Amino acid sequence: MTDLDQDLKQSLATQASRVPQGSDLGRGAIVRGRGIRRRRRVVGGVAFAALVAIAVPVGLEVGDSVSRNDGQVAPATTGPTTPTEITGPRQVNLDLTALPLADEPPQIPYVEGQTVVVGDERYNVDATGDLKAVAAFDGGAHLFVSRGSTAELVRVTPEGSEVLGAAAGTPIASADLRWNAYAIGDVDKFGNVLRGITLTLFDSQDGSTSEINLPAANYVDIYALVDGTVYLRPHSSDGTELPLQTWAPGQEAPSYLPTNYYASAVSDDGRVIADMTKVTDFGSCTEVRGSGRSSLWQTCAQSILGFSPGAVFAWAGPAYLDGYSLGDIVIIDAQTGDVIRRLPSFDNGLDFMDATFEDSDHLLIRVEQGGQTALVRCAASTGQCELAVPVADGTSELGSPYLLSNR
Amino acid sequence: MDADLEARFCEYAAARQQQLLRTAYLLTSDLHAAQDLVQIALAKAYLSWGKLRDPRAADAYVRRIMVNEHTSWWRRAWRHRERSTDVLPERPDHDIDPTDFAERDRIWELVQTLPPRQRAAVVLRFYEDLSEAETAQVLSCSIGTVKSQTSRALATLRGRLAHQGASVDTIEGV
Questions:
Q1: Can you list the domains of chain A with their CATH numbers?
Q2: CA angle in degrees (0–180, nearest 5) for B99-B102-B103
Q3: Nearest C-alpha in A relative to B32
Q4: pLDDT of residue A188
Q5: Which residues in chain A have Cβ-Cβ distances shorter than 8 Å to B76?
Q6: Minimal CA–CA distance to B148: which of A92, A375, A324?
Q7: Most Cβ neighbours (<10 Å): which of A253, A302, B112, B114?
Q8: What residues contact B7, with CB distance under 8 A and at least 6 apart?
């Protein structure tokens, strides 16, 4: 042990010893816990587990069952194509130091350092703060920039950048990059977004915007943009989470779907949704619904986080997500629920931060390893992986060298 | 939750809250924030108390909730997570004299400048005396990440201490 190690131990012990004896926090915790339970009941016991910090107690196990509802699937009018052939290993072990660098960079927009890359175009991110998310469009991008406890929504174009307001949701792009949707709101003196946010649909073809006020919401999750229709779930500061809704310009208010769905992912054509049917402190279950919202399959082992274009595949993290990174991720046949690939995370010294499908077969994953980051491209059909960009120094905590565009 | 289970939870909270509070303070540098952090961790543990098969796992469970609750702020910033509760934490029995915490040593000052996750790694390794594997479990990351976070934190502390020393020398030499 070095002198610094010893001094550090001593310093921490000294500071800790100065903490005075507090009053009984246990009783307050019980009151608080009951409040959390009540709010969960209010929303039907359903919440998006991927977005709720729940830790899995040591010694508990989560079921790995996938059950299908064969025969209940309504015929798809524009159904996805079933993967032609699945080859290669089921378990894919990544190592950033050993993966080959591909000839092709990511075929979807991404961020490299302070530059948003959209095809051949590059837009400089002229914003101070921590860039957390980006949605690109033809001619620019909308950025979610964090500054301490607040976050701003920034639009960048070749002309420069413009702060649009306090961010009240992560911006998202349509697959064709024509549309972006984002949300902004007013903040209190602590930087908290107040109720009554504005959801905006931006059309890059003519630069026009359409807006709607969400009076009860102080945050909104935007899941998909389908031909100018926004799939959203608003949230309010009292913890109320509303089911999936849709909104298109011209509508005075978002519309609920005929049945309440607590979505965690929606396919880019709006046809397939992952519906969180159950969330407890120890498990969550998701039902994946296809055309006509018929149940395709369900799982209590994973949180479905996205679909490939046409919903051929889905990608998923563990049923419980908390902490720094996602943990192991899997690629699933979106029609059957079969796990096609499993990519171990912590066991291989990796942190998977985010992912999105590049096309109907390839998943791009933002991977951290040993203080470095890369975007890794893995083919669902073969299990082959490669670096889509060179490995770069830096990780999310101090500003990731790469980000994937949301869509 | 039945009365017996609730009584056991209260016993656990009473026995462990001071240690948890100390760790929380090292993570937050703020006593009120530390109390809030411990209380929300205990509240979540309370919800799961009946399902904890091994009471010895409770410490690891609560610690993990607490650390993740604190270090995942950045992620919460752009992905909606559970909102803060409307139930305020209980106040301590006595008012806190700010001077109680005014006397800070140089290393502690620098620890507070570390990024949240590096700081958590340092607190878990050097205060809680957790192994790298245990720290990885609490932080939900790989052992390699714990190693890199810890070594980067130590390098930062070492560098800043040297810089401070050089600055003091320069001033004294003027």
A1: 39-110+261-407 (no CATH), 129-259 (2.130.10.10)
A2: 120
A3: A22
A4: 83
A5: 53
A6: A324
A7: A302
A8: none
Contact list, B153 vs chain A (CB under 8 Å): none
- Average pLDDT for B97-103: 40
Contact B26 A15 (CB under 8 A): yes
Element (H, E) at A227: none
Give yes or no for A405 touching B (CB within 8 A): no
Only one residue has tokens 């001619």, namely A139
Contact across the interface for A57 and B148, Cβ inside 8 Å: no
Tell me how far CA of residue A61 lies from CA of A26, A52, A175, B135, B137, in angstroms: 27, 19, 37, 20, 15
Ranges under pLDDT 70 in chain A: 1, 35-84, 127, 148-149, 237-241, 279-283, 321-324
Contact flag B43-A16 (C-beta cutoff 8 Å): no
Contact A397 B111 (CB under 8 A): no
The answer to whether the Cβ–Cβ distance between A235 and B72 falls below 8 Å is no
Cα–Cα distances (Å) from B105 to A17, A137, B64, B109, in that order, read 14, 50, 28, 6
Complex ipTM, two decimals? 0.79
Q: Cβ–Cβ of A370/B144 closer than 8 Å?
A: yes
| pLDDT over 70 (residue B72) | no
pLDDT band at B114 (very low <50, low <70, confident <90, very high): confident
The pTM assigned to this predicted structure is: 0.68
- A320 vs chain B: nearest CA distance in angstroms? 11
H-helix or E-strand containing B87?
A: none
Q: Please name the residue of chain B whose CA is at the shortest distance from the CA of residue A347.
A: B142
Cα separation, A216 vs A237, whole angstroms: 9
**What is the chain B residue with the closest CA to A38?**
B47
How far apart (Å, rounded) are the C-alpha atoms in residues B129 and B125?
Answer: 5
Q: Which domains does chain B have, with CATH numbers?
A: 1-79 (1.10.1740.10), 104-174 (1.10.10.10)
**Closest Cα to residue B115, out of B65, B66, B56, B155?**
B155
Higher local confidence (pLDDT), A69 or B69: B69
| pLDDT at residue A240 in the model | 67
Pick the closest to residue A112 from A391, A357, A358 (CA basis). A391
Both structure tokens of A45: 């016991």
Positive or negative, the Cα torsion across A113, A118, A124, A126?
negative
Q: Which H or E element spans position A184? A: strand A179-185
Between B168 and A18, name the one with better pLDDT: A18
Q: Which residue of B has its CA nearest to A58?
A: B57
Pair A314, A307: CB distance under 8 Å: yes
